Amino acid sequence: MIKRIFLIVLDSFGIGEMPDAQAYGDEGSNTLRACYKQKEFSVPNMARLGLFNIDGAECEEKASTPIGAYGRMTEMSKGKDTSTGHWEICGIVSDKPFPTYPNGFPEDIIREFEEKVGRKVICNKPYSGTKVIEDYGREHLETGALIVYTSADSVFQIAAHEDIIPIEKLYEYCRIAREILKGDHAVGRVIARPFEGEYPDFRRTPRRHDYSLVPPEATLLDELSAKGFDIIPIGKIYDIFAGKGLKEAIPTRNNAHGMELTMKALDEDFTGLCFTNLVDFDMVYGHRNDAQGYAKSLSEFDIWLGSFLEKMQKDDLLMITADHGCDPLTESTDHSREYTPLLIYGSGVKPINLGTRKSFADIGKTVADIFGIDSKIKGESFKDKISEK
Questions:
Q1: Which element (helix H / strand E) includes 163?
Q2: 298, burial (CB in 10 Å: exposed 0-12, middle 13-18, buried 19+)
Q3: Is residue 340 scored above 70 in pLDDT?
Q4: Range of the structural domain that residue 45 is part of
Q5: In Å, how far are 68, 217, 385 from 380, measured between CA atoms?
Q6: Could you read off the pLDDT of 293-315 as tens digits, one per residue?
Q7: Closest CA to 141 of 120, 118, 161, 123
Q8: 24 and 40 share a domain?
Q9: The domain spanning residue 134 has which CATH number?
Q10: Last residue of a domain, one of 157, 192, 211
Q11: Fewest CB atoms within 10 A around its CB: which of 20, 124, 321, 341?
């Protein structure tokens, strides 16, 4: 009988292009392969769970006797962003992608935002998050104008120096933008991007905050909450779901902090789901095309994973997956349309190849099934396939 499920999302850890990758400009993308090429890459614990036994993950020799169940997840939704990926994991398949702005936001949107916050906007174009403060930070310090930018993802990002715009004021500006961006302009996320330092040595602070759209229908989190199960949302989870179905937010400073809090949850007496997002793979390495850093970070996670596996109890279940790709060796610094891995471990888990699943939502459906919930979310449960008889 499973009492606790630990679901860990390695943000952007894709394992190879999906069949429709070309439509997204991502033909040839493979985040796993890009990291595998780096000398810093070493993931023996994920390997013994079955990482290289997954269909298409052919970088390294397969484990002869994997200790976990494993599979390849297909994103059914249109898009390749964080919100879409996490929502689908929890049962929402998005038929329409969130709007993106390759030429910046329309003048009427920017004008309304400027009027409501009482400050001018500079930049308003797709930009790297670190490059934008390098290029516009000095002007921001001199004028107090807000740096608004986007990317290939559906995001409205506001960068501001914490000495110019106090953090709570920046969050207020983000909430104003979230109210403006509705209807046809309902972007997936509005993101506060605070930074500090003196020109030209600016650096982003860990007080980033995401303001997501509210999921349009019930998710796994709503169903678990309604049935009285505990949910421990670590990292960006609360923000991604706009708090829907959740009672608390547990933000993290970085991957190390997220892993620390997840390990701590193993010592807590709860019945339900610990849902962790480890964002550094995406934010710090993928988007900056830092393949060496990405590989090193995966290796650090794998070391932590070894300790986590040893500490798990008989009534615990671990699932490791991702929400999209972000190949650090392509010219693009944006997300990539890739399959994602699924690794499952627990005392009653049959080491089996789950093949290529039709939707990320199969994860949410399975979690609900394990907890005995007659779920209405989309997806197909694989509970019976992984359960030792």
A1: none
A2: buried
A3: yes
A4: 4-96+214-386
A5: 19, 18, 11
A6: 999 999 999 999 999 999 999 99
A7: 161
A8: yes
A9: 3.30.70.1250
A10: 211
A11: 20
